[in-house]
Amino acid sequence: MLKKLLITLLFLSALSCKKEGPEKEYYNNGNLKSVYVYKPGFKGAERKFYNENGILVGQKIWKDSLNVIQKEYYRNKKRKAFGALYDEHKTGWWSFYNGDGLLNRKTEFVFIDGKEVANQTIIYKPDGTVNPQESTIFSIALKDTLKVGRSIGTINYRPVLSAKSVFNVYVGQGIKPDFSNLRTVKLDTFSSDDKNNIWFGVEALQPGKKSVGGILEELFYEANKDKTDLVIKKQYTYFRKDIYIAE
Prior knowledge:
By secondary structure, this protein is mainly β. The protein folds into 2 domains: 2-123, Outer Surface Protein A, domain 3; 138-246, Immunoglobulin-like, CATH 2.60.40. Helix content is 6%, strand content 55%. It has 1 helix and 17 strands. The strands form 3 sheets. A 9-stranded antiparallel β-sheet has the order 1-2-3-4-5-6-7-8-9, with no helix packed on it. A hairpin with a 2-residue loop joins β6 (79-86) and β7. It comes from Flavobacterium subsaxonicum WB 4.1-42 = DSM 21790. This is MORN repeat variant.
């Protein structure tokens, strides 16, 4: 990760020396491959990508040196995907489209332990409505404003592994939006074997703005083929919510 960051910084440093204006790259057949327009500070910088037939297939728009909006297109010029990148990794909600340009999937990406993780996905039917049977989404039931003391929150979640799964919720306060400090904050554990009552506790000691978040762990114990041992299957989902603690 450190090596990659160093390479990225060197690349960005080299780009920062460039003047404003288009920089073009071509295929061996002479067709345009990409066009890059640099902007000081990278805000508004843009790169467009073309296939060997000269058709636009992608576009990147920089918000700053690390945050980028990426668009992808099919050969028929219909939109294919749209979302944000952070340091070249998908982050937040991405939209994906079929060959006709119709939305068929949205996926939330988070960056955990140096890896890009698909956290939850919404699948759409051809008529544009949500397909709940194929979607893997969750919601947090916790008031936006809590009082100093102890409160209870719940997670509405459809099991991915089995209807017989059990659950652990590891929750803490001060979780950053990018989950970068998830492994360093103190996490409390709450367990449940009821998919309809996955709960967790929040203990607020001081008033003010807080963030609550953590990991939902789904566990399913299944006998192996010989029925001599148990195989443990695991599924992790990451969640976070901003709250306010009142006196």
